[in-house]
Amino acid sequence: MKPPPDDQPTDRAPNRMPGHAPGHTRHRANQPRIPAQGRELPPTPSQTVGPFYGYALPFPGGGQVAPVGHPGAITLHGTVRDGAGEPVPDALLEFWQGPGRPGSLRRDPVTGGFAGRNGVDFTGFGRVPTDADGGWVLRTLPPPPERGYVSVCVFARGLTHHLFTRVYVGAPPPDDPLLAALPEERRRTLLAVPVEPGLYHFDIHFQGGKETVFLVFDGTDESDESESPDGSDGPEQSDGLDGLDGLHGSDG
After folding, report:
1. Is 38 a member of any domain?
2. CA neighbor of 78 nearest in space, from 154, 18, 23, 148
3. Is the peptide bond before 99 cis (omega within 30 degrees of 0)?
4. How many CB atoms lie within 10 A of CB 10?
5. Can you give the pTM of this predicted structure?
6. Nearest partner of 215 among 180, 152, 165, 156, judged by Cα
7. Range(s) of the domain holding residue 70
């Protein structure tokens, strides 16, 4: 086959891969990057989280905080619901409770379990994912009467920031400053409902008429004490009085 004359066009460019459409080149020169040159760039915004908690954060026995066979153990259970009242199937709850022995989530290379879950010691920390119906279960010890509550941190899809709340178990302390500052209808969203001896029900509502009271920590009050994530005691940032009406500003 004779090559075409120099004055006639050809459909085979020297830098085009065989079989590709005309105009498709094998490579292109790198374009130079234009530096910011002192321009002030906006910060990266917060990103919507999840739903990916079930693949990394939950661990075996995360809801079994009470030592095995402990006669004083109680069971808390409930459902996480969105603003429309629908269950949230991929939320993650962390529970902090003192006093407890500081534990560890380091994997035990022999048993495959976790160093902080030996079945004997109480660490005061639990991590529980919700099931397909938004349900969760925690088996723990009752909080001390002078405190009366278990701290809860909620992670879920659609939340750019996790939420903090409390679940009061049994008769709440009469001088609790958080409960005293709330109207009766809002106070009820923090109280676990007794079902039978040793069994309590507590639902978490993100929005709507039953919205749970969520707390905002401003770091201005270090006089109170609360629990650290590992179950040991530590200073609480505040009583969350700026967030008594919920993060969404609901009045109930």
Report:
1. no
2. 154
3. yes
4. 11
5. 0.66
6. 165
7. 53-243
194: CATH: 2.60.130.10
57-76: average pLDDT: 88
By CB neighbour count within 10 A (0-12 exposed, 13-18 middle, 19+ buried), where does 12 fall? exposed
Q: Does 158 fall in a domain?
A: yes
Determine the pLDDT at residue 154.
94
Is residue 156 within 8 Å of 129, Cβ to Cβ?
A: no
Sequence-ordered alpha helix ranges (H) in the chain: 177-180, 184-187
Does the structure show a pLDDT above 60 at 241?
no
> Does a structural domain hold residue 74?
yes
Q: What is the tally of structural domains in the chain?
A: 1
Paired residues of 118 in beta bridges: none
Report pLDDT digits (tens) over 211-228. 999 998 876 544 343 333
Structure tokens at 168: 């009061």
pLDDT digits (tens, 9 = 90+) for 3-58: 555 555 444 444 444 454 554 445 455 555 555 566 777 777 666 555 565 666 77
